[in-house]
Write a structure and sequence with these properties.
Length: 735
């Protein structure tokens, strides 16, 4: 045994099997309560071995501790891997020695494999018994490897709190807080899109109220990847709070661009560029960015080591074995943590309803190739500007078919520039032409790569289709490839732009080609692979509406996660996790702030409510000038918008004034005591009257001016005084 342990000591962390065995042993020695479940190593050992292992528990723990206080171990490891001096043949040491002991000699060979005890027996009874024992032993070992939760430190009182402030009950707007007692990190600060109930709103950003309440313990913002629904709200956040910001180069590059647009350039000093496979100590956490494939390059999952246990947050992911840059998902690091024992997994639920596997990004290439082959005129390809690999593929096939490339659309140009500058992709500069040069080339030598695949009316494609683009107009010989899928809610606008292009006579290649677009999110089989690799004790499906996370829950149960260990969160739920339990402890305030992107301005909730009221029910404005003494209306004006057509206005005005006059003549004297109370009373009367007639509650504005007070009141209420010389048909004197 001594030899074995010395061997394992001398080996580096990279020797996965041994180092994990070592950790396993050490932890096991410390947790007797797990004896029963730990069938993998412990059961067959003689007593002596156990005591030896306990002796060795301390050095292992020390090593564990060193690991937590991270050193960049993977760099030195790669050097060590080249010298074979310390490396051992895995099968030669630990198993070999362990089974030499007395009573096992009958059942096992020296190398640890099981013997057939009576090879020359009559019949096969004993032979089958020996085989069966082998099956039982293997099953035990396999089952033991499925749930490595005995490796969690069940004795710890440490707990972690998880609070999503966005990204649940919705697609987009992702933002999650992970907290210990003393420190906290924010994972992603994304934006989402408004729906029809938010007129004049461009983007939505999470409510930051909760951050305000814990701001003193926030150590950093960490970014998984550079999609807008993960970084779009970062500049708005940094206008309020400034914390260190950690991310991979593309994410920081794109956040940096936003900071410049928002006048936050100086905050780039807070950026920390991370390296994958290299954990970083941030507050109470040690975080490793793990490479993952997705529809934007340089995406990551996060392994977050805490005193309570390891948390894996997948970010957005798919498992693409043939990505364009040949950098597949780092399954080995995910498996590494899985084998170590993961307390909690948070995983992407976007495509939970899709069975099978999301096809590789590479599968789009041949579709492009075929379309380019058949195109006789210009090819116009539109996709998400952040999908650099899609753009890269289109350009590569364009070049193959001898076409020059015009990149049109601000975000597309910007993203491609940054990807080329940072060296993510390599394209020759002479491949590109400017939009105004397109006309100088024959149609069959032009590829236009552009934005607008969601039918956005401001986009280049839309303007080309409506003849509003300065240089390009869609013509019948064009082939337009929409390499995208409508984001839920955008179906109408995508259909509208397709109609426009087809009316212009051009060919449109959209969803009728199955592999013209592939998703960036994991389908069920990939979600299963993630669950099986990580083998989490607790599971929180994230990124999706309730039906998406509920479906992901079913997938997780099928992959061995206990139902009681899964919680379906909503934004604002605060979940507490310890290796022994997971529970919701409270709700914090969440919501959305509305942003007018043109002016980079917040819009208050009231404004949106008012806009909706105006849009749905219209507005009714009554202005009265009154003789206070005689309680008589001297003059009135009725204005309506969105209630009746122009022709009916006079009739409505007459109807209202008859009723108002009747109301005033029957009213108690005290309603005339001041303009405010009269306005309030008239408001209530009008509300009833209008509802009776229209079954709607339009916005009602009542201004009463007592004679002799006109100027004074006008200044107070910002009501334009009625100028008697400007009477029009809506003003009728009734006095
Ligand atoms: Zn994403």
């Amino acid at each position: 045994m001594n030899d074995i342990n010395e061997n394992t000591h001398s080996e580096k962390e990279g020797q996965t099997t041994n180092s994990q065995q070592k950790r396993h042993n050490a932890q096991h020695a410390n947790t007797h309560k797990d004896e029963k479940r730990n069938t993998y190593v412990r059961k067959p050992r003689p007593q002596k071995t156990t005591s030896h292992m306990q002796d060795n528990a301390a050095p292992h723990s020390a090593n564990e501790h060193k690991k937590r206080n991270f050193k960049p171990q993977f760099k030195s490891e790669s050097r060590d891997m080249q010298t074979t001096e310390n490396r051992k043949w895995v099968g030669e040491n630990k198993h070999a020695m362990r089974f030499k002991k007395e009573k096992y000699e009958v059942e096992k060979h020296e190398d640890g494999t099981r013997k057939i005890k009576t090879p020359s027996e009559k019949g096969n009874l004993s032979f089958h018994k020996d085989l069966k024992k082998g099956v039982e032993a293997n099953t035990k070992i396999q089952k033991g490897s499925l749930n490595p939760h005995h490796k969690l430190n069940l004795n710890t009182n440490e707990k972690i709190r998880i609070t999503p402030l966005g990204g649940l009950g919705e697609i987009g707007g992702n933002m999650t807080i992970i907290e210990t007692e003393k420190s906290a990190i924010i994972i992603d600060i994304g934006m989402s899109f408004p729906d029809d109930s938010m007129p004049g709103v461009d983007i939505l950003i999470p409510d930051f109220q909760y951050i305000q309440s814990i701001k003193n313990k926030i150590s950093a913002v960490v970014i998984t990847h550079a999609h807008e629904d993960h970084i779009g709200a970062v500049p708005y956040f940094y206008k309020q709070f400034q914390f260190p910001l950690y991310g991979t180069p593309l994410a920081l590059g794109l956040v940096g661009n936003k900071f410049e647009e928002h006048g936050l350039k100086q905050h780039k000093a807070l950026f920390h560029i991370v390296e994958k496979r290299t954990p970083v100590r941030i507050g109470d956490f040690e975080i490793e960015w793990i490479h993952i494939t997705h529809s934007i390059i340089d995406s990551s999952a996060l392994a977050i080591r805490t005193e309570a246990g390891v948390i894996i947050h997948t970010g957005d992911f798919k498992i693409d074995h043939t990505p364009i840059d040949n950098l597949p998902t780092d399954l080995h690091r995910l498996a590494y943590y899985g084998e170590e024992g993961v307390m909690l997994l948070l995983s992407d639920s976007t495509n939970s309803h899709k069975s099978g596997v999301t096809p590789s990004e590479a599968s789009v290439g041949p579709t492009f190739d075929n379309l380019f082959k058949t195109a006789t005129g210009r090819v116009i390809m539109s996709t998400f500007s952040s999908n650099i690999h899609r753009v890269y593929q289109a350009i590569t096939y364009g070049l193959k078919h001898n076409r020059k490339v015009a990149v049109i659309g601000r975000s597309m140009e910007k993203n491609l520039d940054i990807a080329r500058e940072l060296g993510y992709i390599d394209l020759p500069s002479n491949a590109f032409i400017e939009a105004h040069e397109v006309l100088q080339y024959p149609d069959n030598e032009v590829l236009i790569v552009t934005t607008g695949s969601q039918g956005e009316t401001m986009s280049a494609l839309y303007r080309m289709a409506t003849d509003e683009h300065r240089h390009i107009k869609i013509k019948p010989t064009d082939m337009v490839i929409l390499s995208a899928k409508a984001i839920p809610g955008n179906e109408g606008s995508v259909s509208a732009v397709i109609n426009l292009i087809m009316k212009a006579g051009a060919k449109v290649a959209y969803q009728d080609f199955s592999e013209i677009h592939v998703s960036g999110h994991a389908a069920q089989e990939e979600q299963k692979l993630m669950l099986r690799l990580i083998k989490p004790k607790f599971f929180l499906p994230v990124h999706g509406e309730y039906n998406h996370i509920a479906k992901h829950k079913q997938t997780a149960i099928a992959c061995g996660v206990l139902e009681k260990n899964i919680y379906l969160m909503e934004d604002g739920d605060q979940i507490e996790v310890n290796p022994n339990y997971m529970r919701k402890v409270k709700s914090v305030r969440t919501g959305k702030s509305f942003v007018d992107n043109q002016a980079n301005r917040h819009i208050e909730n009231d404004v949106i409510n008012e806009r909706n009221l105006l849009a749905n029910d219209g507005i009714f404005i009554l202005t009265l000038r009154m003789d206070m003494q005689k309680r008589k209306i001297l003059e009135h004006r009725v204005n309506v918008f969105g209630i009746v057509g122009q022709k009916e206005e006079a009739e409505l005005s007459k109807f209202i004034m008859e009723n108002i006059n009747m109301y005033l003549s029957n009213a108690k004297p005290n309603i005339f005591k001041d303009t405010k109370s009269l306005e309030n009373d008239l408001f209530s009367a009008l509300r009833k009257l209008l509802f009776k007639r229209f079954k709607k509650y339009p916005a009602i504005l009542v201004n009463v001016l007592f004679d002799g007070e006109v100027r004074h009141k006008a200044a107070q209420n910002k009501v334009i005084p009625i100028d008697e010389t400007e009477q029009d048909k809506t003003i009728e004197s009734i006095s």
